[in-house]
Amino acid sequence: MRLTSSVKCLTPNCRKLYKKCKQIIKSRRLFGGDNRKNIEDATALNKTKTFQKVVDKFSFMQRQFISMQLSAIGIKKQSRRYTLEQKLLCLALYKQSPKGYSLLEKIFCLPNKRTLNRVLQRIPMSCGINKVFFNALKHKISEWSSTKKLCSIIFDEVQLSSGLNFIPSEDIIHGFVPDSNSPKFADHALVVMVRGICGSWRQPIAYYFCEGTMPTLSLVTILKDVIRAVLRTGLEPLALICDQGMTNQSALKVLQATTKRDQLRNGLICDGTISIDGNKLSIVYDPPHLLKGIRNNLLNKDMSFEGKLVKWQDIVDIYNYDCQIGNIRMCTA
Prior knowledge:
Strand content: 15-25%
Strand order of the largest sheet: 1-6-5-2-7-9-8
Number of strands: 11
InterPro entries: THAP9-like_HTH, TNP-like_RNaseH_N
Protein name: Transposase
Largest sheet: 7 strands, mixed
Low-confidence stretches: none
Domain THAP9-like helix-turn-helix: 59-117
Domain Transposable element P transposase-like RNase H: 126-255
Helix content: 40-55%
Shape: elongated
Mean pLDDT: 83
């Protein structure tokens, strides 16, 4: 027999025997002495009618949270295990406020952010229309009322930092513009989202990588595909909302021209809407961008409204007059 100070120095057979002994000692500690009494007391409490009545009043999320805290008592962070429902609950908390989740993680027994990111990595993500999102959305809205299904489709481009990312599990390099004749680095992403008109809900449904702005013809094809996919879920889109970018205006004019041609053929009145598979959508430009456009034009141009002339100097005069009143002001800076 020889003594050693490290497990790494043991032979494979001795290492297996060492792990087995540790498991036996751990089980004896868990089910012996005070722990055995605590388990017996907890089992007896669980069988009482009073406890069952209290538990039955909890919601599913409340039961999951309490179960998560009770099962993690006395266990090290690295040894804790969580169910998928518990991870999804924590993921919802994290998405509401990452800083708030960091505080809750110090108070309660919760999975760390790395564990939550692994859950997200299990969701298949790819450019274009994601069938997983649409299937989940179709299942979610199946019990909604017809009023709650009214929605608008919003799309806009966001700027990205160019770079390449290799995904070993998929053997794919991300960072190029897909379906391009020559390799191009993606520095923008077109994001499409649906938002409820009569309900406070919203859901991103698709994204597309591009270099600069999305080409007009490509944007026309994307909008048609997205509208048809949204209609198949059971939602009823009523409007397309975007900013006043030149590419967006050109794509919407193409869709309007196609709708206008079909309306003239069928003897209908041209109302400026867009029709996709018989569903009409109005065009709404983003109100904050419209206000900013009016402000920019007033800086160097005058505007005629109901026979009266409006100047930028009028706004400056009102603000200066309001500043002379004192502490009580009608206009803010």
